């Protein structure tokens, strides 16, 4: 059974694409422009706590890498 769920509710598509992640794999979502990208990661740590990290990352050579947020999901 999946532990994480990702979706793209607003896009040019007519359907909402989704992805699932397990405790062992986590899930990563990228949203990009020509100026860079934002990556959101969800995973479970060794203590069983759901964590998140939002990072600005380069995309096709543009942008920077910088952590924007990090924490516990639901806290």
Description of the molecule:
With 75 residues, this protein is mostly beta strands. The protein has one domain (4-72). 0% of the residues lie in helices and 52% in strands. It is built from no helices and 6 strands. Strands 3-4-5-6 form a 4-stranded antiparallel sheet, with no helix packed on it. Strand 5 (50-57) and strand 6 (66-72) form a beta hairpin. The protein is flat and about 35 Å long. The chain starts with a strand and ends with a strand.
Secondary-structure map with pairings?
Blueprint: E1 4-7, E2 18-21, E3 27-33, E4 36-44, E5 50-57, E6 66-72
Antiparallel strand pairs: 1-2, 3-4, 4-5, 5-6
Total separate domains? 1
What is the average of the pLDDT values? 95
- Give helix and strand order, one letter per element, not per position: EEEEEE
Question: How many extended strands?
Answer: 6
What oligomeric state do the depicted chains represent? Answer: single chain
**Poorly predicted parts:** none
Please report the number of helical segments: 0
Radius of gyration: 14 Å
Q: Label the overall shape.
A: flat
Largest sheet strand order: 3-4-5-6
Q: Biggest sheet: strands, sense, closure?
A: 4 strands, antiparallel
Structural class: mainly beta
Share in β-strands: over 45%
Helix content: under 10%
Give the termini separation.
23 Å
In short:
The chain has strands spanning 4-7, 18-21, 27-33, 36-44, 50-57, 66-72. With 75 residues, the chain is mainly β. The strands form two sheets. Strands 3-4-5-6 form a four-stranded antiparallel beta sheet, with no helix packed on it. It has a two-stranded antiparallel sheet with strand order 1-2.
């Amino acid at each position: 059974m999946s532990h994480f769920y990702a979706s793209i509710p607003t896009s040019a598509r007519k359907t909402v694409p989704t992805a699932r992640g397990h405790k062992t794999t986590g899930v990563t979502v990228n949203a990009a422009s020509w100026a860079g990208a934002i990556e959101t990661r969800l995973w479970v740590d060794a203590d069983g706590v759901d964590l998140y990290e939002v990072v600005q990352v380069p995309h096709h050579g543009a942008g920077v890498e910088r952590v924007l947020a990090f924490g516990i999901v639901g806290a």
